[in-house]
Design goal:
Layout: H1 8-18, H2 30-33, E1 38-48, H3 62-71, E2 76-77, E3 90-93, H4 94-100, H5 108-116, E4 123-126, E5 129-134, H6 137-144, E6 151-152, E7 155-163, E8 169-177, H7 191-209, E9 214-217, H8 228-233, E10 239-244, H9 260-274, E11 281-285, E12 302-309, H10 312-320, E13 324-327, E14 332-338, E15 341-346, E16 354-362, E17 369-373, E18 383-387, E19 393-399, E20 402-406, E21 411-423, E22 433-437
Parallel strand pairs: 1-2, 2-6, 10-11
Antiparallel strand pairs: 1-12, 3-5, 4-5, 7-8, 8-9, 12-13, 13-22, 14-15, 15-20, 16-19, 16-21, 17-18, 21-22
């Protein structure tokens, strides 16, 4: 297997893991620190990093979307439209806005005027067509931001493609969080090459501007674009979407292709055991496009980040350290990994029961790999690798609201998957219940700073 040089922040994470310093944090004190800009005691902040508006292929105004999230208790939000930042003058035809709205009833324009009024909404008529100006982030953020309570973070969904054939293009999308400048997608010679070139462009901006930035791979199964091997070998990336709320991203996989859970475990097994590199961390997002009762709705998935402050650099630092979890409804009061023990404390609800699975891969796993065709004409990668049942193995199934798992020393890594009996309020697949995912712990890798990419 080839070796790769790691970005400096991943080397730091790897070094911490090597000496057993993974997520050694104290329980959050949310009530005591709420509303403060900085606190010595971290607290949990709820956020969504993947959201679309009229700036790309969404169907509502950014202010309406931000208002929705703020009113529902989110602490931070990134409007991540395709290949654009909300930082330039854009006018949009009102008939175009109406066409995007699939539901009946009050139009997006009428709702916008009702909520923000004529003095805020800027309209004109050009060549006989009514238009409305889309507000820029710096214009609308003062309406919503409140120090220590709600934050808007500039972001972009960098949406590149890999042309498998002239007729078949595979979408390779990544959110860039806390950008300073717009990034244009870059083409490449392979799935991995496209990811690497675009990630390197973001890292270059981060280094040049001194502004910390975070990226994550989006919906790997969207149009079946990416494999676990692709995600494993691109070590410039350390995050991916374990849950994405869009109903068309094939979260569960199918009869011949793995779902997100197994993709995560395969990628992390390869990273830790073969590449001697830190694992991918899993984020939860909405990937919302529709806000009027249609299929790609907001509020389906999010991250809970334990941070000392509600500032981009603090949030990014906490996520790079793995001090966060992904959720579709389950709230965790605390997550700790210390002295080889993973502890999860769930904030339970009356009448709801919880099951926690401790999932991972044994150190001495069966590394047998075979191949199978997907029998799909439009699959950009029609032959997929098949792995043994050792990968993504369930080490324990634990009931209750407080669980502990002590590593035996035989695990390559473990993570917790918490499933509740409470149905999801807006499911994306049949019989979906509320869940949460913690990050991989117990792994041990060495830095490869001198290795060549």
């Amino acid at each position: 297997m080839p070796r790769f040089a790691l970005p400096s922040f991943l080397l730091a994470a790897a070094g911490a893991a090597a000496v057993g310093l993974v997520i050694q944090t104290k329980p959050a004190q949310a009530k005591e620190t709420a509303g403060t800009a900085d606190s010595a005691t971290p607290r949990w902040y709820k956020g969504n990093t993947h959201t679309h508006s009229l700036w790309s292929d969404g169907n509502d105004f950014p202010e309406m979307i931000v208002d929705w999230y703020q009113q529902r208790g989110y602490n931070f939000l990134a409007l991540s439209d395709h290949n654009v930042l909300h930082a330039k003058e854009v006018w949009m035809a009102e008939p175009t806005i109406l066409k995007r709205q699939k539901s009946v009833g009050k139009t997006a324009m009428a709702k916008y005027l009702e909520r923000f009024g004529d003095t805020w909404v800027e309209r004109r008529e050009k060549d006989g067509v009514k238009e409305v100006r889309l507000k820029m982030l710096e214009e609308y953020r003062p309406k919503f931001e409140k120090e220590g309570e709600f934050l808007l973070v500039p972001a972009e969904e960098l949406s590149a493609n890999f042309a498998v054939t002239p007729e078949l293009k595979a979408p390779i999308h990544m959110v860039a969080f806390n950008l300073k400048e717009e990034v244009k997608p870059i083409e490449g010679t392979s799935f991995k090459d496209v990811m690497r070139k675009n990630l390197q462009a973001i890292r270059e901006q981060e280094k040049r501007t001194g502004q910390p930035m975070l990226t994550h791979i989006n919906h790997p199964n969207f149009r079946w674009a990416l494999t676990a091997e692709d995600m494993a070998e691109v070590l410039e990336e350390n995050f991916f979407e374990i849950f994405n709320g869009h109903p068309s991203i094939n979260y569960l996989g199918d009869a011949t292709r793995y779902g997100h859970e197994m993709l995560w475990d395969i990628a992390n097994t390869i990273r830790i055991s073969k590449l001697d590199a830190p694992p991918l961390y899993g984020v939860g997002t909405d990937d919302s496009h529709h806000y009027h009762g249609e299929d790609s709705a907001p509020g389906r998935g999010w991250v809970m980040v334990r941070s000392k402050s509600l500032k981009p650099d603090a949030l990014i630092s906490a996520m790079r350290a793995g001090d966060f979890y992904a959720s579709t409804g389950v709230t965790l009061a605390d997550v700790q990994f210390q002295d080889g023990v993973l502890k999860v404390r769930i904030q339970g609800e009356p009448g709801v029961s919880y099951t926690t699975k401790i999932v991972g891969t044994p150190k001495k796993y069966d590394a047998t790999v075979s191949e199978r065709p997907t029998n799909a004409e439009k699959d950009p990668q029609p032959v997929r690798k098949v792995y043994s049942a050792d990968i993504g193995k369930t080490f324990a199934t634990l009931p209750g609201e407080t669980v502990e798992y002590k590593l035996t020393g035989d695990e390559l890594y473990v993570r917790a998957v918490i499933t509740s009996t409470k149905p999801h309020v807006n499911p994306t697949y049949e019989n979906q219940t509320q869940m949460a995912w913690t990050q991989p712990v117990g792994w041990n890798v060495k830095s490869k700073a001198s290795a060549s990419r």
